[in-house]
Prior knowledge:
Elements (H helix, E strand, L loop, with lengths): L2 H7 L8 H26 L11 H7 L10 H9 L1 H6 L4 H10 L5 E4 L11 E6 L33 H14 L5 E8 L26 E4 L2
Parallel strand pairs: 2-3
Antiparallel strand pairs: 1-2, 3-4
Helix pairs in contact: 1-2, 6-7
Amino acid sequence: MQYDDYQVQDAPSWLSDLAGVLWNRVLGTMKNAVTAAARAAVMARFASKAPIDALPVLLEDRVLDPAWNENETSVRTRIQSAWATWAEAGRPASLAEGLRLAGWTNFEIREQPQDPTLRWWEFEVWLYAPFPFVDDYLADGRWDDPGVWDDGGVWAPALPVPDLARVRLVINKWKGTHTRCRQIVLVHAGETWDGDAPPGTWDDDPTATWGDDVSFFAP
């Protein structure tokens, strides 16, 4: 029974006229609102029950990454799995999961076995298309294309500033404390001179192109 009904039924007889009933119903309605707010406040701390606007606060409370490219169900599941997520922190799997949640679907975390120039505590993050942004890196052409410096155009960014900041945040948050990311490599097109994964050969595919459309970023 709601408070507005209970208060009317429990009122003394001298409040049984119309004015008394309305008076008690208003007071009961206010109690209903306070009770509903208290229940909502308690439920807001549970990922499965919280309103959608409480999810960013729950993510922050559990020191998890913001919901960049996720649906509501995925965010709620991630909040519920926070304990297990932090148990895996510092491992390549947790870094890979962070990159996936940030919208990267094709990437590689290179360590010493894949690249002997890396030291045992170093790694690199290689990002491949499709990207979570429109890659217009070559929209203005290449450096040796015809053109002049003051034609009013600007060179397209190799990686948008927000996306680069997001990748850096993910790397610094989920990498092992003893490790160091040597560089972030964004492969726009073609194969790289030092080999992709898996390594290829010069004549393995006559339709493939070798290119230098690669951007390097400090972590």
